[in-house]
Design brief:
Blueprint (H helix, E strand, L loop, with lengths): L6 H16 L3 E4 L5 E9 L3 E6 L4 E5 L5 H11 L4 H13 L3 H14 L1 H10 L1 H21 L3 H14 L6 H28 L6 H34 L3 H28 L4 H31 L3 H14 L4 H13 L6 H9 L13
Helix pairs in contact: 2-3, 3-4, 4-5, 6-7, 6-8, 7-8, 7-11, 7-14, 8-11, 9-10, 9-11, 10-11, 10-12, 11-12, 11-13, 12-13
Length: 363
């Protein structure tokens, strides 16, 4: 017994006590990016009870905790019932964890098909309305920040996947407004391009404008026609007409890119004309990529992934460096690996953020 009173043994006892007090502690990740050291006492689909390292008992609502972390801890500890799997799936879906959402949905189906059927009939429409409302808010925020391209992309995604929701009509109006803004901005940029090459003499400048306009007019007319086709696709309530019109518009824009390239090749020394044509080319490339991706989104909503990928490839044929087209191909390829559930259909158009994987705990 005397040996326990030596300084070395006393230090060892203190270390054991400290270890016992903190053995169950971990860093609980918060949505703010910070963390709380403590031990999870219990967790359900709404909140977790935590005992902090100071011995204080606190309750954290799930919205305050990092969603990856919360999902991992909750699904590890929850009773594996069909109802809990559906709850976990909805939580994962609402937080952009789409792979996890599909996994939970499949597990629920295996346990209780009738419950899942009721869930699809009664709950899924509400989820879709919620996702559509989030997308519309994101598009409106992008407009407020004058990021019109982002606003159009988000609103078009809403219309492609969630056109039967209340937010769809507002999304159509938003896109119409964005198109008007784009036309004005494109015209401004083309005028500036042309002005760089005009002589100071007014008569000569007018003559040069007329010359360039006569060479570029056929292409401008066909680009306007392609835009009209894309606009009709956005407004259409028929998936077949929407898909067909987007594909047609994509091909129209692609053909004008080729026509512009040929015209520039045939007139290598005409700097004024070529600069103006490059402005038109930028428009045709941008709009062509968008049209093919929009057609691809319709195919994804039908879970026709091979055809969706063809549209992605058509977009990349127009612009091999398009980040948007590369992302579409990558995400569509990933989606094709999973079962065809409502999660796949809505998630491809309704995610509040990018596709996020992984998660789990950090101890």
């Amino acid at each position: 017994m005397k040996a326990l009173t030596t300084p070395l043994c006393l230090l060892a006892l203190v270390a054991l006590v400290l270890f016992a007090a903190t053995a169950g502690a971990e860093e609980i990740l918060l949505n703010s990016g910070s963390g709380i050291e403590g031990e999870i006492q219990s967790i359900d689909h709404e909140s977790m009870k935590v005992k902090t390292k100071d011995g204080e008992s606190i309750t954290l609502l799930r919205g305050a905790v990092d969603p990856h972390y919360y999902y991992s801890e909750w699904t590890d500890r929850m009773d594996k019932t069909a109802e809990n799997h559906l709850r976990a799936g909805v939580f994962a879906f609402e937080n952009g964890l789409f792979n996890q959402a599909r996994s939970q949905y499949r597990k629920a189906q295996k346990l209780d098909k009738e419950l899942v059927k009721k869930f699809e009939e009664e709950i899924v429409p509400k989820i879709k309305e919620g996702v559509a409302a989030k997308l519309l808010a994101m598009a409106q925020a992008a407009v407020a920040a004058e990021n019109y391209r982002k606003a159009e992309t988000i609103a078009a995604k809403l219309l492609t996947r969630l056109e039967d929701t209340a937010a769809a009509e507002e999304a159509r109006k938003l896109i119409a407004g964005v198109h008007t803004w784009e036309l004005d901005k494109d015209q401004e940029r083309l005028v500036k391009r042309l002005a760089r090459h005009l002589p100071k003499d007014e008569k000569k400048a007018l003559s040069e404008k007329t010359r360039i306009a006569s060479r570029a007019e056929p292409i401008e007319r066909r680009i306007a026609s392609a835009r009209k086709t894309a606009s009709a696709a956005i407004k259409s309530s028929s998936e077949n007409r929407k898909k067909g019109a987007f594909e047609q518009a994509g091909k129209q824009f692609a053909s004008q890119v080729k026509a512009i390239d040929k015209l520039i090749k045939d007139s290598p020394d005409d700097k004024a004309l070529n600069d103006y044509l490059m402005g038109l080319r930028e428009i045709a490339v941008r709009e062509g990529v968008d049209a093919h991706i929009a057609a691809g989104n319709v195919y994804v909503s039908r879970r026709s992934f091979p055809n969706a990928l063809k549209q992605g490839e058509a977009a990349l044929a127009i612009d091999p460096d398009s980040v948007k087209a590369k992302k579409f191909v990558a995400e569509t390829t990933e989606a094709s690996k999973y079962d065809n559930t409502w999660f796949t259909t809505v998630a491809r158009g309704g995610r509040p953020g990018g596709m996020r994987g992984g998660g789990g705990r950090r101890r």
